[in-house]
Amino acid sequence: MEVQPIRIGLLGYGNVGKALVKLIAAQREAISSRTGLDLTIQAVAVRNPEKYPQLETMTQRITTNAHDLVISDDIDVVVEVIGGVDPAKGLVEAALSSGKPVVTANKELLAKHGPELFGSADEMNLDLFFEAAVAGGIPLMRVLRESLKGEPIRRVMGIVNGTTNYVLSQMTETGMSYGDALAEAQSKGFAESDPTADVEGQDAASKAALIAMVAFGAQLGLSDVTCQGITEITSKDIQFAKRSGHTIKLLAIAEHDHGEIGVRVHPAMLPNHHPLASVRDSFNAVFVEGEAVGDLMLYGRGAGGDPTASAVLGDIIAAANNLTQGTNNGLGNLRKISIQSTEELENAFYINLEVADEPGVLASVASVFGKYGVSIRSMEQEGLGGEARIVFITHSSKERNVHSTLDELRELDSVIQIGTKIRLVGA
Ligand SMILES: NC(=O)c1ccc[n+]([C@@H]2O[C@H](COP(=O)([O-])OP(=O)(O)OC[C@H]3O[C@@H](n4cnc5c(N)ncnc54)[C@H](OP(=O)(O)O)[C@@H]3O)[C@@H](O)[C@H]2O)c1
Q1: For 49-84, what is each residue's pLDDT tens digit?
Q2: Is residue 13 within 6 Å of ligand 1 at its C-beta?
Q3: Domain 4-136+305-325 classified CATH 3.40.50.12780?
Q4: Ligand 1 pocket: which of 10, 13, 16 to mutate (most atoms <8 Å of CB)?
Q5: Is the CB of 63 under 6 A from ligand 1?
Q6: Is residue 308 lining ligand 1, measured as CB closer than 6 Å?
Q7: Are domains 4-136+305-325 and 342-424 of this chain identical in fold?
Q8: Which has the least CB within 10 A, 17, 33, 130, 284?
Q9: Are 250 and 159 in contact (CB under 8 A)?
């Protein structure tokens, strides 16, 4: 087989960039004999080259000028692992305009500007691959784009953020508080020093937007994803979930229903028998429901240099193969599909209220549920006096009605506080 040299221009040499360079060095011969592609790291762009003295032995050229690198004639494929929108967006655009396919791990960039960038790639007959941007090492994008291309997918539901899964797993398994579990995640390197994007659900929301684009060919942006994180989950919620045979997980959900799509991120109580309930620690998993194929689940490491580099490398090989054959594999025309209003969704809810310990409270609370047609499946009272807490599980109800119920309950003198509201999913 004739060997085809493929010169990679690498933008960024952080966690993912470093792991990629190491993986390519280890696999270069095997890849060459399997695919006929000889991969080399031709040039690397970073901001501070002095931070990376070891880089000199790994590449021909180190530069601080990422723009020059992406338009340079001696680069065949550009790999963007800088992160963020600026300057990554301009660099991806410049690479595509100068005829180079791009591989990126950047969920934030694609969730915000995906349709526009995919359009530019298609116009140029070039690939813009992003396997590593969703669920790190799990080959989800390729499965959705290729294996399930003809499948009518109803719903994709995933645990796509390792930090929050680690925190919720620790709270469930050791009884730790949210704050202690988050501090432990930070000390073990599973959470950033500023964990806001993870715990408030924005990281998962970017991934949910990308899943919806690929699974449903939908043209949408991050603002179409409704998002609730895990910061309000308490040990009491976790204990209730355990007692009632559930596990609380942060889910990213993209679903197609009656010509509309719904895309959202929120904590959910899953019955323990659901396959996603057993995904512990910082692992990720994605559950796909298709009309023909039925239920599928993919499980693995959603982050970390090595798993992410593995996904990036798979994309580089696919893009290089297409480049040598003069073809590309785009997402096709992303269509504007009507976005379902969350208020119209129907779900069963876990709702807990802190109430005054006085006669008639239960009757007045129950009458508000009744007024908005939210029927109560079960009710449990915990504690006495100032500690009194009532936990309700509702039957499936429109979110709009549940919100109206909570708004009115907030006005009652006997309701001291409304606690966490968690949807029951997968029953
Ligand atoms: N880490 C993971 O587990 C993981 C998993 C999935 C996806 N991702 C995605 O992969 C991307 C990279 O993540 P990471 O963890 O590897 O990031 P990182 O460790 O922060 O590394 C970023 C690298 O980009 C370089 N860089 C930043 N701005 C630059 C610029 N303007 N010009 C040239 N180089 C620049 C930095 O160089 P200096 O150090 O010199 O500033 C650094 O080498 C992000 O989009 C992230 O969301 C990461």
Answers
A1: 999 998 888 888 999 999 999 999 999 999 999 999
A2: yes
A3: no
A4: 16
A5: no
A6: yes
A7: no
A8: 33
A9: yes
- Collapse the DSSP code of 89 into the 3-class scheme (helix H, G, I; strand E, B; otherwise coil) and give the result: helix
If pLDDT is split at 50, 70 and 90, which confidence band does 135 have?
Answer: very high
Residue to mutate (ligand 1; options 308, 310, 313; most atoms within 8 A of CB): 308
Contacts (Cβ under 8 Å, ≥6 apart) of 411: none
How is the chain split into domains, by residue range?
4-136+305-325, 140-301, 342-424
Report how far residue 78's alpha carbon sits from residue 17's, in angstroms, rounded to the nearest whole number: 12
**Cα 82 to averaged position of ligand 1 atoms, centre (Å):** 4
pTM: 0.96
| Burial of 101 from C-beta contacts in 10 A (0-12 / 13-18 / 19+) | buried
Name the least confident of 281-285, 345-349, 355-359: 355-359
CATH of segment(s) 342-424: 3.30.70.260
Could you tell me how many residues make up the chain?
Answer: 427
